[in-house]
Amino acid sequence: MVGSLISAGSHLNAFGEFDNPALFAASICGHCDIVEILLVNGADVNKQDGYFGSPLHAASRFGYVRIVKLLLANGANINAQGGISSTALEAASSANHMEVVELLLENGADIHGQGGYFYSALAAASSYGHDDVVKLLLKNGADVDQGYPLERAASHGHKKVVETLLENGADVSIQGKEYGGALRAASSCGHANIVELLLKRGADANAESVWGNALEAASTHDHHESVELLVANGATINQSGALHAASSCGHERIVETLIRQGADVNAQFGVHGSALQAASSCGYDKVAKLLLINGANVNAQNSMPRASQNALAAAVSRGHEKVVELLLKNGADTSQS
Known about the structure:
Elements: H1 2-7, H2 22-29, H3 32-40, H4 55-61, H5 65-73, H6 88-94, H7 98-106, H8 121-127, H9 131-139, H10 149-155, H11 159-167, H12 182-189, H13 192-200, H14 214-220, H15 224-232, H16 242-249, H17 252-260, H18 275-282, H19 285-293, H20 311-318, H21 321-329
Helix pairs in contact: 2-3, 2-4, 3-5, 4-5, 4-6, 6-7, 6-8, 8-9, 8-10, 10-11, 10-12, 12-13, 12-14, 13-15, 14-15, 14-16, 16-17, 16-18, 17-19, 18-19, 18-20, 20-21
Pfam family, one: Ank_2
Keywords: ANK repeat
ANK repeats: 18-50, 54-83, 84-116, 117-145, 145-177, 182-210, 238-270, 271-303, 307-337
């Protein structure tokens, strides 16, 4: 059929129904015989579509070893940039196709190629937990920190990959891309076993990033075990917005733990002012009650511009009747609201 169409004058490099040329379509579907026919008849081996990139990117992404070999033998640019994965090596690495990764490396793929969603092949493999591919890439000289592989592995809970990266010299303190570092990533996503590992390997429990710190992240997302680990390893409770974060999210157990560990219930932090105002603004009466029992000032004033003056004003403005009732019972001054 393909041969007949070619003989009838079909344009080999024309874009078809799904906006990709014939060689790309055959490569992504694993049709090795058709790929061979198209190549013999002069199909452009490096013509790209918009999403995956070149035929080599597509074949690498789906693990078609024979097609990868055919494309390379017919002049495919092994380091061509394009598509979501940017390079064929990154595409194969993200999908755990070890044989394709080996083949590409043997044929001169640039292990430091940059770009794409993950920015490097190592970061792609790390993100998906492909430990064997990670080890192969490192063995072949991959930069252990390029593309923030440690942060990516930590955020997804891939402990084996985290261990492999650390054993190969990954910087435990490097600022990451999406989370602000590996420790904050693990804390935010609730991977306490990785939080513990990173702390043992020297991660700073108080490290700050543009996204805040690890304790604040764990408190926001209600990861109690991570909170306890961070505090036990020196996280300074009153230098972060951990109590305010937990209060504004209604995480009663976290609030209780932070108070027990010495959190200042009247500290001012961010737009909400006090933790009590944060809980009141968001309607968490149980958290508000816990804060009041532990000495929160019911009439504390918020100095932030354009914010509610105090806890009562915040609760009233949001219509949280239970919180309003609680605050009034505990001496809230209506003249200040």
